[in-house]
Amino acid sequence: MDGLRKILREPVLAATIGVIAVSLFLFVIYPLFKVFQMSVVEDGRFTLHVYGDLLSKAFERRPLYNSLLLGTLVALAGTAVGYLFAFAIARADVPWKRFFRVLATFPIISPPFVLSLAAILLLGRKGFITRMLFQGQWDPHIYGLRGLILVETIAFFPTAFLIMLGVLQAIDPALEESSLNLGATRWQVFRTVTLPLSIPGLASSLLVLFVESLADFGNPIILSGNFHVLSVQAYLHITGMVDFSGGAALAVILLLPTLVAFLLQKYWVSRKSYVTVTGKPSPGRLSVDPFTRRLLTVLCLGVSGLILLFYGTVVFGSFVTLWGADYTLTVKHYVSVFLIGGRYLRDTVILASLATPITGILGMIIAFLVVRKQFVGKGLMDLTSMLTFAVPGTVVGIGYILAFNERPLLLTGTAAIIVLLFIFRNVPVGIRAGVAALQQIDPAIEEAATNLGAGSGRTFATITLPLITPAFFSGLAYSFVRCMTAISAVIFVVSGRWNLITIAILGLVENADLSQAAAFSLVLIAIVLLALGLIQVGVGRVATSQMGYEAAG
Amino acid sequence: MRHTLTVLAIVAAAAWAIPVQGAQVLHMYSALDTAETQLYIPQFEKDSGIKVEWVRLSSGEVLARLRAEAKNPQVSIWFGGPSQDHIAGKKAGISTPYKPALDWTLPENGRDPDWYWVGYYFGAIGFGSNADFLKKAGVPAPVSWDDLLKPALKGQIAIAFPYTSGTSYTVLATLVQMMGEDKAFEYWKKLHTNVHHYDKSGSAPVTQAGLGEVGLAISFSHDLIAKGSAKGYPITMTFPKEGTGYEIGGISLIKGGPEPELAKKFVDWALSVRAQNLMQKWFRIPLNPKAEVAKGAVRADQVKLINFDAVKAGEDRDRLIKRWRSEIGQ
After folding, report:
1. Among A260-274, B147-161, B233-247, where is mean pLDDT lowest?
2. What is the mean pLDDT of residues A194-215?
3. Hey, where are the domains in chain B?
């Protein structure tokens, strides 16, 4: 009760909490509720027959098996590759660390389906490798499970890499050193010390990749052939068959394994982290024997080569006149990017630029509330705001068209629905960054401001915000990238007034207009890189001005 | 904090306000290929001074979206897609009649008897084979529906989903009207073993065949030419000797659409000689007798057509698609 009274004394704080709670309810919970409702209510009565219908037919069940199989295999393969890179960089002291680091994170900023495009250019029946290396004698069969494992592993291993890098860097090398001093071989050290300490990280990475693969839409819609997966099937049910209840039910089926994985990750795995940071200075980097180092270098080079080959092919493909028929080089695809694609580029950049700052500020405010303030329903706010991150885009997109197609919440066809979707899909990133930054800051600094008479708002604006600015900018950067490359959710809410470049590219790939799609993708990547550079400059300036301030103080 | 909230409020308000209601904007779903839609729209905008905001969707998707939006129509006009899909739309109650003033007569199968949709072009279903593939596989280009079942074509055919694509539904309805329903599904089950994959868009298989990703595409003749041979791909076009189905591409006005008057202007324009001449670039056959026909385009008298009943096809659509999904399992 004390908490409630405290909040009521601060109307701005109370209002902020109220506004955020209502928005989270409207734009996160309510759409999900609509999806669920659509799948179980018919003519005003509760029924499970939609599920019964779906699960009784083998061809409707298959996408579920397929999605789970694909998710599991991609989680294993992606985590293995991610661990390889993280171990090589954090523990094995391989050469060219910066190069490996850049390559291992590059797929994050590229639109998801670019890798599928590259896979077709390279390994399709008329692909470069298929024709040059195998003279067309061997068909790699990339349309289906094989191709999807390949492209999703490349697309999602960066996440595993970042998770594992964090975990490995948190393990105190002194532990490994002492076991080495006690007579263990390097392999024994790895097996009995390093690996067990990485297990929570590995589990977390497996779960996150499983979720990412399940939620992936851009790659399977291009590359799945006759290997149908849930996200695409739910989309086809709704956009192709007017089967809203079937599509919603498929979305719920897609949501279940995702939620289980998300909750496991949040409440079980993350509690098991073995933090070994002791505060004592660590001795120099522990390394591996030369042979292992060389082996790791070669493996990392191999994967890096593959990534370069994939993106390089897209670059080459964007200059080819007519892939498959005429390989003369041309810039005409870039000319038409700006002639016919101008409006897609403009709309996408406008919408992403509108959504990004709101996402960033909202993320920081929620992070501040969750870490620093006590109020009723705080845990719920935390969980809800993280939820959109775990829920597959397809489910969110279906929820938005169901929830916002009728008065009084009539938003279909407006820019608002796209911007809102961007904000609430990406706000968890900002929150995470904010929470991490806030936990590093001693609350005493803020208390001092409060004691000197500043209210919550003033304290936040003058003390907290400047201190968490770097986290704020990294949240901004990530959310901008996600807006520019989003597809799975927004594909349901685009209209003639607002067109997104990812959706245009998807249409081009589907029509096998590969070179044009490649040119569009590269322009998109260039815009993202440019924006990241600008944000980087912003952070740099803030950091220097802060340093100046500190020096002066 | 108060400033932050103010900024948030302003930005949010801006986001709502941005879709400015310009004086004359027509909203449209186009079932024609993106590149083809771009042949017509800029010309219409220039001729009429009306701005068009359009989304390209396959015609089955247009129908699905219009049904979903029936309570709150987002567009005023549905441009393109086979008449059977427009007939299904009439049955679903999403369209509204409009009789354009013409100085020529639309053929009987070229419009709805009550003007719920009007025809715009003609096109026949054909096969487009990749010539290099044919040579390598040592098979002649298919000239009958049965030729598509040859083992040499295993995993080589691309076609669209009948529920998303008007093209593919035309194929299904053609087979049903030619062979009878049960035989037609028997046939498609055999065809399915030769199908590499299904696309969302009816014309997408053409480029895939041109590229060589698949050996053969089943699509409309104009798409086979415009996206195949005319672009430089080695596409050989053939037609089944038993007869083939065709489409009359349609235009429907949407019931309760936001700009009915602008939509009517578009229909008038689309049937004018000026607009109908534009389709030469896409090798469609115009319905306006005064319009010119592109060289190489396939006219109704050049192929053997079945006596195609588009009304029946339109009315059976939901049922046939349901059966197709459960029998083919896609």
Report:
1. A260-274
2. 89
3. 22-122+247-300, 123-246+315-328
Report chain B residues whose CB lies below 8 A from the CB of A126: 211-213
Q: Does B69 touch chain A (CB under 8 A)?
A: yes
CATH of domain B123-246+315-328: 3.40.190.10
Lowest mean pLDDT among A5-19, A243-257, A474-488, B268-282: A5-19
| A416 vs B7, B16, B65: nearest CB | B16
Is B22-122+247-300's fold the same as B123-246+315-328's? Answer: yes
Q: How close A239 gets to chain B, by Cα (Å)?
A: 5
Question: What is the pLDDT of chain B when averaged over all its residues?
Answer: 89
Residue B133 has pLDDT above 90, yes or no: yes
Nearest neighbour of B55 by CB, restricted to A13, A57, A496: A496
Classified by CATH at the fold level, domain A1-31+332-553 comes out as MetI-like fold (1.10.3720)
B310 to A498, B85, B166: CA distances (angstroms): 34, 9, 12
Q: Residue A551: is its pLDDT beyond 50? A: no
Can you name the CATH fold of A48-113+142-271+282-289? Answer: MetI-like fold (1.10.3720)
Nearest CA in chain A to B319: A241
* pLDDT, tens digit (0-9, with 9 covering 90-100), for A40-91: 988 888 888 889 888 888 888 899 999 999 999 999 999 999 999 999 998 8
Name the H helices within chain B.
2-17, 34-48, 59-68, 83-92, 131-137, 166-179, 181-194, 204-211, 221-226, 260-270, 273-278, 310-315, 317-328
The pLDDT of B25-44, averaged and rounded, is 91
Cross-chain CB nearest to A361 (options B4, B54, B197)? B4
Report the CATH number of the B22-122+247-300 domain. Answer: 3.40.190.10
Considering only the beta carbons, identify the residue of A15, A240, A414 that sits closest to B164. Answer: A240
CA-nearest of A419, A62, A80 to A228 is A62
User: CB of B12 within 8 Å of any CB in chain A?
Assistant: yes
Q: CB–CB of B64 and A242 under 8 A?
A: yes
CA-closest candidate to residue A250, choices A275, A266, A268, A233 = A233
Identical fold for domains A1-31+332-553 and A48-113+142-271+282-289, yes or no, is: yes
Between strands B51-56 and B95-96, the pairing is unpaired
Q: Domain locations in chain A? A: 1-31+332-553, 48-113+142-271+282-289
Q: What is the 3-state secondary structure (H, E, C) of A372-391?
A: HCCCCCHHHHHHHHHHHHHC
Label residue A271 by pLDDT band (50, 70, 90). low
**Span A25-35, pLDDT tens digits:** 999 999 999 99
Query: Is residue B288's pLDDT more than 50?
Result: yes
- Report the gap between the CA of B226 and the closest CA in chain A (Å): 13
Looking at residue B218, its amino acid is I
